[in-house]
Specification:
The complex is a heterodimer. Chain A is α/β, with parallel strands linked by helices. Chain A is built from 13 helices and 13 strands. In chain A, the strands form 2 sheets. In chain A, strands 1-4-3-5-9-2-10-13-12-11 form a 10-stranded mixed beta sheet, sandwiched between helices. A two-stranded antiparallel sheet of chain A has the order 7-8. Chain A is globular, with a radius of gyration of 21 Å. The termini of chain A are far apart. Chain B has one domain. Chain B is built from 2 helices and 9 strands, in the order βαββββαββββ. Chain B has helices spanning 13-20, 75-78; strands at 5-6, 25-29, 34-36, 52-56, 60-69, 83-90, 97-100, 115-122, 129-135. In chain B, the strands form 2 sheets. Chain B has a 5-stranded antiparallel beta sheet with strand order 7-6-5-8-9. In chain B, strands 3-2-4 form a 3-stranded antiparallel beta sheet, with helices on one face. Classes of the chains: A alpha/beta, B mainly beta.
Chain lengths: 439, 137
C-alpha cells in the first residue's frame, strides 16, 4: 500500500539557499485525458480510465514506454465526492480506487508497470510535482510518472447535512465558515485598504476564459466553448458575497500526467526538457481562525522570498506567470507580492485593465487557470511547460518564454506548493547559454 | 438560526463546557503568555503542551470584517440564507478572531469596526450553547 510522501521532501523553511538540484531535474512529457463536467457513470469515462489515458499520453509525449518508469506519484484523493454509498462495479472498479480517486497502486496494476521501485502519494498536483522533482534529484527514482486525477460525481459535493459537527469543523461549521468565506473576508479588507471595488476583477475573469478557450485539453474548450463577458461575470449570482459564481473554478472530471526525470535522461527524450529551478512549500500564515489581509500579504511575501531565492532568479526574469486561481481573488495577492511586471500592492485591478492577453505585453496567466479550464489545477503546469517549449499553440505568448512560475494555493492565499521552471538548466538567459541540444 | 451543534472532544470540552455556563474562555500558554483560538494540543508559539490553561476573557469585541453567505454548505443554515457571517476580534485580544451571524443586524448592513457584545445561543441538536455576538447599539 503506497504511503504519503514525507513532508520533508517539500522545501518549507526560509533561507535554504539555492535548491541543490536546480537544473538537474526536468519535465519531459505531458498527457491529458478528456475533461468532463461530471462522471456519467460509464466505465470508459471513469477517473481510472482517464488516468490510464493521461498516463499513456504522457509516456508517448516523452517518447518512452512503461518499462522506462521506475517511480510514480499519485493521489487517491480526487477532491470530489465519493461514489459510495452507490454500488460498486466489477474489478478493477470494486472500490473507490479508480472511481473517485486513483492511487499509485491502481495505476501500477492496471498499466502493468514492472519496474517501479518508488511510489508515494500526495494530495494535489503541485506538491506531487515538487515531491517528484525532489525525489528524482535525491536519486530515489530516475523517471517518475506523476498522475493527478480530479473527479466530480453527479450532484453537489461537500454538502454537510449532519446537525452536529466535530473535529476541526466544530470551530467553523457552526457558523458556516469555510474557504469561500475566508476569501470574502480578505477581499473586503483588500477593497477597503486600497479603495478597490468588486468590479475590478472582470477583465481578468474574461481573459482567463479567453485563454482557456485556447487550451484544447481544457473543460471549456472541449465542452462549453463560450466566451465569458464582463456583463455575465458581473451578473453571476453571489455564492458568498463578495464572491460570485464566476469567481470560483468549476468542478470537473479530468486527469493530467507528467513525466519527471533527470535532466540527463530528459535530453534523450522526445521533447525539449523543461527544468526545475526550484520548488517550495508555504504553510498558511494565520494567527487565529481567519486569515487577515495583513497575514495574507505577509505569507505571500515569504513565499516569494523562498521561491525566487531558491531558484536564484528575480521576478524580472519570469516570463510566464501562472499563479493559483481556485478563487479569482487569489491572483491579486500573488501578482502584487511577486511584483510581476512591476505591479505593486493595490495595483492589481489596474493591471487587469491593461492588455493581459497572450498576444499583448502582459500575458498574465496564459494557462487560463482553473477559472478558464475547470478545477484540475494542472493547467498551470501544462501551459508553463508548453510555453517554455514553444508549443503552447494559440496561447503561446509573443514575448520570450524562458522562465515560468507555477503556483498552487489553498483555502488561504499562499498556503501551498510552488515551482520555478526554465527552458535551460541554469538561469543564464538566451544568448548567453545554449546547452540545450534540442534548441 | 439553527446552527449545527459542536461535539466536544478532549481538547475542546473546557471551552464548550464554559459556554454552557455562559462564560467565554480562551486557551492560554502560562509559559509564554500566548492566547490561541481555536485551541491546539500545543502552544503555537513556544511548543509547550504542559502549560496550556483556560483563561476567562471579556465579552467585548469588534467587527473585523464580514461576508454574506448565499449558498452555505451547512444544511441547517440554508433556510436563513442569505445571512451575515462576521469575523469578530476580541477587544482585549484583537489577534483572536471568532465568527458570528450578528443576530439582529440586517443582511449586508454590517458596521465594520463597530463594537459587539457576547451572548450565547442554544444549538438545537444537542442543546450545546455556542458564542454569538450582537452589535452594541
Amino acid at each position: 500500500m503506497t504511503q504519503n510522501a514525507p513532508h520533508a521532501l517539500l522545501r518549507e523553511k526560509e533561507g535554504l539557499g539555492i535548491w541543490e538540484h536546480r537544473g538537474k531535474v526536468a519535465i519531459a512529457g505531458i498527457g491529458h485525458s478528456p475533461a468532463d463536467r461530471r462522471w456519467d457513470g460509464n466505465l470508459e469515462t471513469s477517473l481510472g480510465a482517464y488516468a490510464l489515458i493521461a498516463a499513456q499520453r504522457a509516456l508517448d509525449d516523452a517518447g518512452i514506454t512503461a518499462d522506462d518508469v521506475d517511480g510514480i506519484v499519485a493521489s487517491p484523493n480526487g477532491m470530489g465526492a465519493p461514489w459510495a454509498p452507490r454500488e460498486y462495479f466489477a474489478q478493477p472498479y470494486d472500490s473507490e480506487d479508480g472511481l473517485s480517486g486513483v492511487s499509485a497502486d491502481w495505476i501500477i496494476k492496471q498499466m502493468g508497470l514492472k519496474h517501479i521501485k518508488y511510489a508515494v502519494h500526495h494530495n494535489d498536483i503541485n506538491p506531487m510535482m515538487a515531491v517528484a522533482a525532489q525525489s528524482v534529484g535525491d536519486g530515489l527514482a530516475h523517471t517518475i510518472l506523476v498522475v493527478r486525477a480530479v473527479g466530480n460525481m453527479p450532484g453537489r459535493y461537500a454538502q454537510k447535512r449532519a446537525n452536529t459537527v466535530s473535529g476541526p469543523s466544530q470551530w467553523t461549521d457552526v457558523w458556516g465558515f469555510w474557504g469561500m468565506a475566508q476569501q470574502g473576508y480578505t477581499f473586503n479588507q483588500y477593497c477597503t485598504r486600497y479603495g478597490r471595488s468588486l468590479d475590478g476583477m472582470a477583465p481578468l475573469a474574461v481573459n482567463l476564459r479567453r485563454n482557456g478557450l485556447m487550451f484544447p485539453e481544457g473543460y471549456y474548450a472541449q465542452k462549453k466553448a463560450e466566451p465569458l463577458t464582463a456583463e455575465e461575470y458581473l451578473n453571476s449570482p453571489w455564492v458568498n458575497e463578495p464572491i460570485r459564481m464566476h469567481d470560483c473554478d468549476i468542478p470537473i472530471q479530468a486527469v493530467a500526467a507528467y513525466v519527471v526525470t533527470t535532466a540527463e535522461r530528459a535530453r534523450d527524450m522526445k521533447q525539449k526538457p523543461v527544468y526545475f529551478l526550484n520548488h517550495c512549500f508555504q504553510g498558511g500564515m494565520i494567527r487565529s481562525s481567519a486569515q487577515t489581509l495583513d497575514e495574507c500579504e505577509a505569507s505571500c511575501d515569504q513565499l516569494v522570498r523562498k521561491l525566487l531565492g531558491g531558484a536564484g532568479i528575480t521576478i524580472e526574469e519570469v516570463d510566464v506567470f501562472n499563479p493559483y486561481d481556485g478563487f479569482i481573488t487569489f491572483v491579486q495577492y500573488y501578482l502584487e507580492a511577486f511584483g510581476w511586471h512591476g505591479v505593486k500592492r493595490g495595483e492589481a485591478h489596474d493591471f487587469y485593465g491593461e492588455d493581459i492577453r497572450v498576444e499583448g505585453p502582459h500575458p498574465l496567466m496564459s494557462s487560463g487557470g482553473n477559472l478558464g479550464n475547470g478545477r484540475s489545477r494542472c493547467w498551470h503546469w501544462t501551459d508553463s511547460v508548453q510555453q517554455l517549449q514553444g508549443r503552447a499553440g494559440a496561447r503561446q505568448i509573443r514575448d520570450k518564454a524562458e522562465i515560468a512560475v507555477v503556483g498552487l494555493g489553498g483555502v488561504m492565499a499562499a498556503a501551498g506548493s510552488w515551482a520555478v521552471l526554465s527552458n535551460r538548466p541554469d538561469n543564464e538567459r538566451s544568448g548567453t547559454a545554449g546547452t540545450d541540444s534540442k534548441d | 438560526m439553527p446552527k449545527p451543534s459542536p461535539v466536544p472532544d478532549a481538547l475542546s470540552k473546557p471551552f464548550w463546557d464554559a459556554c454552557n455556563e455562559e462564560r467565554l474562555v480562551m486557551q492560554t500558554c502560562a509559559q509564554c503568555d500566548w492566547m490561541q483560538y481555536p485551541p491546539r494540543e500545543k502552544c503555537t508559539k513556544c511548543g509547550s503542551a504542559d502549560h496550556l490553561e483556560w483563561h476567562p476573557v471579556s465579552g467585548r469585541g469588534r467587527i473585523s470584517g464580514y461576508c454574506v453567505q448565499h449558498d452555505s454548505r451547512i444544511a441547517s443554515l440554508k433556510e436563513d440564507q442569505p445571512f451575515n457571517l462576521a469575523i469578530v476580534e476580541l477587544e482585549d485580544h484583537p489577534e483572536i478572531k471568532m465568527f458570528s451571524h450578528l443576530p439582529g443586524t440586517p443582511v449586508g448592513k454590517v458596521p465594520v469596526g463597530g463594537r459587539v457584545h457576547l451572548e450565547f445561543e442554544v444549538t438545537p441538536a444537542t442543546g450545546q450553547k455556542v458564542p454569538e455576538w450582537r452589535v452594541v447599539q
